[in-house]
Amino acid sequence: xxxxxxxxxGAILASLLFTAWLINGxxxxxxxxxxxxxxxxxxxxxxxxxxxxxxxITRDFLEQRDSSGLLALVIALLVGTLGYHAVFGLxxxxxxxxxxxxxxxxxxxxxxxxxxxxxxxxxxxxxxSCISAHLxxxxxxxxxxxxxxxxxxxxxxIGFATWNTLYLAAxxxxxxxxxxxxxxxxxxxxxxxxxxxxxxxxxxxxxxxPSATKPxxxxxxTLFQQRWSAxxxxxxxGFLAVIVYLRVAPLGVTAELGSLSRTxxxxxxxxxxxxxxxxxxxxxxTAVKETLxxxxxxxxxxxxxxxxxxxxxxxxxxxxxPSLSESARNFLGGTMLGWGAMTAIGCTVGTLLSGIxxxxxxxxxxxxxxxxxxxxxxxxxxxxxx
Amino acid sequence: MLNLKQSxxxxxxxxxxxxxxxAQASEYLVSTDWLEENLDRQDLRVIEVSVNPGVFERGHIPxxxxxxxxxxxxxxxxxxxxxxxxxxGLLQDAGxxxxxxxxxYGDTNNWFAAWGxxxxxxxxxxxxxxxxxxxxxxxxxxxxxxxRPSNYTAGNIEIGEPNLELRAFLPEVVEVARSExxxxxxxxxxxxxxxxxxxxxxxxxxxLAVRAGHIPSAVNVSWGEAVAEDGTxxxxxxxxxIYAAAGVDGSNPIITYCRIGERSSHTxxxxxxxxxxxxxxxxxxxxxxxxxxGVPVTNLAGTVWGGQ
Lengths: 386, 308
Known about the structure:
The structure holds 2 protein chains of 2 kinds. Chain A is mainly α.
């Protein structure tokens, strides 16, 4: 274990906590920002340690029949489903009254959602990461993620430009389906557990153990050096998702990016000054920036800095200059990620993770079409390469 | 370090408390101190009416009930306050009976809590008071919050006919606007920029008007003038002075308005409940008046359609 690297990580953690302490004040806003900074740090740490990248875990399964990453996702969704339902019981004791629990990412369903998820999936395969993974990879020194994230900003802008047309064509009339309002909390939790359990069984059956088994390391090495196992990563993400929803808002990583893009587009006069209905929909909503630091911005800052703090002692911090064609591909993929995330009001974190945990049909639909986009593009790329 | 910060906060809180407990501006206000001491009383019902959704659910005053202004306290189809029957059902579900004491509070300086108090008053519900300083003062003093939902057995309150003496409608306001020597004082509580006609509405709001400016003869006293630094209402003497400086001394009946009738309820509360003046709230406000055809408008900025 490299003591120097570990102490840099320690210093980053200390400054993150100190900043949170400074921000935290009497107002709820400041408390939400301080909390989000720490929670984002934890999220970035977990994602990096588990290498929880939605594209990579899918590719591991497709190429090597290694299910462990996808299992981590399923475990996170299971834990999150249970936790969300427990919180819902507090927020909205009776789910059948026609209200939705506050802030939960339960979106309208239409062909636009399916298309946005599909485009997002294609963007994932092209840029080899989703937005959350590009963010944590920034902490690993992935310079290639910068063009992808710049592309995402552009994609958001295109999303704003096409929003009013798509909203009036389909989104506005789209039904908002929240499973507990039909099945009750017990019914919806049981249904989701059954579906997730079935997916887990399939993944376990298809799983082939990686050929070389890793030696068991001590607890310190496990924490700082070795890749976290699927159950640990899944449990940690599910637990964090529930706590963050209880305290601030569902997990999401695109609201701040979208707000940056919307503010820029607004000032340049490139996007419609009135985005119909957008501010009334639940999800990773974006607003024209009024304050420098929002809870979601703090979350992303915490995430990137702690991903760096996690990558350093593990030896995962490897800055590398991408080739021009790789940068171009990442930029194009990133644009698709941005457009998809804006149009679906969230990405693999905000709509898939936080949506499915909230028992929103929109989360499941995003998952299905995103996966189709990823697998389709991956197969196409395989064919052109071979 | 944490302890240091904690003790600083406690000291600051104690100082605020000491100032806060010196005076309660009106019998229609309760202090945070009083409320915390009386929370266990069975005949007391605390109701949160906050502007922002999701605030109540993430922590409310223990035992409080949530009234959502945008669906619970209005007619959801036509532009109107909640119908009497629906309001009675809402109160009964919250376990309110004829002898229940009610305390309202909310976020953003009690804007919608005051609006709630106006609706309670219209329907003749008695024993209704406002938590002075609202939610932000309660939080700033580090008082407990709970996330547990409250469940009460249905109450038996019956409410009467709406008292329209508290509510101004467009024809009455137009009559004041047209009269040479109005015997009603209009108080516009919006920002100076809205009052002068420089903007139609603050940035980011969806409910707009076609014309900018204000109702002729209205004076501009922003709602915030009535609020002390800690979010409580200023003392009755201070309030009397502030409104008198604008020519509103209670000798005439008063009509308050804003953009949608919400913040003007805050001023309605200050003028009627603290100063005891005869006040109506014009809830149609500028979104009705500024869209009406043929009514007189004063526009100091000379804007047309929001431009020059």
